[in-house]
């Protein structure tokens, strides 16, 4: 797995993931678990959807 998630993208994913998880906790709804997806993709630096679409936000051309 080649990293395809850049720094700014990671920050956005972490903030969005935590916000979704927080909303799930606040509303006592299991849909907050969906917040784990952007959080995990940010932490590992690889997004399967980006890989399929050929998108890289890492800033490197390799």
Radius of gyration from CA coordinates? 13 Å
Shape: elongated
Strand percentage: under 5%
Number of helices: 3
**Average of pLDDT:** 94
Q: Summarize the biggest pleated sheet.
A: none
Alpha-beta content class: mainly alpha
Instruction: Give helix % range.
Output: 55-70%
N-to-C SSE series? HHH
What is the count of β-strands? 0
User: Separation of termini?
Assistant: 13 Å
Low confidence ranges: none
Quick take:
The protein is mostly helical and 62 residues long. It is 56% helix and 0% strand.
What do you see in this structure?
With 62 residues, the chain is mainly α. The chain has a domain of 40 residues. The chain is built from three helices and no strands.
Task: Jot down its keywords.
elongated; 3 helices; mainly alpha; 62 residues
What order do the helices and strands come in, and which of them pair?
Blueprint: H1 7-26, H2 36-44, H3 48-53
Helix pairs in contact: 1-2
């Amino acid at each position: 797995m080649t990293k395809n998630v850049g720094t700014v993208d990671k920050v956005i994913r972490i903030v969005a993931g935590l916000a979704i998880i927080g909303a799930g906790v606040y509303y006592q709804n299991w849909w907050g678990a969906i917040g784990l997806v952007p959080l995990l993709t940010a932490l590992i630096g690889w997004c399967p959807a980006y890989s399929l679409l050929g998108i890289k936000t890492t800033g490197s051309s390799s």
